[in-house]
């Protein structure tokens, strides 16, 4: 809030901007302790799906969850598995390389004797 001087008084000038983005101000989330399947659920009451902001279900472990959350979680799991597979492949390559070097050392030692 700013102060605007006038002839004999100071008047406040209100900020025309919202205090937060509209999306945030309108965000609804629930604190259900059950499966968000009753009209007590504030998300269900507002006809929206539960989201990550919901206190207990996090938009994942209830009956009012969006399928898009599940898809995102599944794709994240697939990506993590791909990363794990890549790491295991690299580890196998390194192990093969080490084995080859060890075999060469043994061969060289036998050749010298």
TrEMBL record:
In this chain, composition skew of type Acidic residues spans: 97-113
The ranges of region (Disordered) come to 91-113
The name this protein goes by in its record: Tesmin/TSO1-like CXC domain-containing protein
């Amino acid at each position: 809030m700013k102060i605007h001087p006038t002839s004999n008084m100071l008047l406040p000038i209100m900020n025309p901007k919202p205090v937060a983005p509209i999306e945030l101000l309108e965000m609804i989330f629930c604190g259900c302790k059950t499966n968000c399947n009753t009209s007590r659920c504030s998300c269900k009451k507002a006809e929206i799906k539960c989201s990550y902001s919901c206190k207990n279900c996090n938009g994942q472990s209830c009956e009012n969850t969006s399928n898009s959350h599940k898809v995102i979680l599944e794709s994240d799991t697939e990506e993590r598995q791909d990363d794990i597979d890549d790491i295991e492949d690299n580890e196998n390559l390194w192990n093969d390389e080490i084995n080859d070097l060890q075999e060469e050392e043994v061969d060289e030692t036998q050749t010298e004797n």
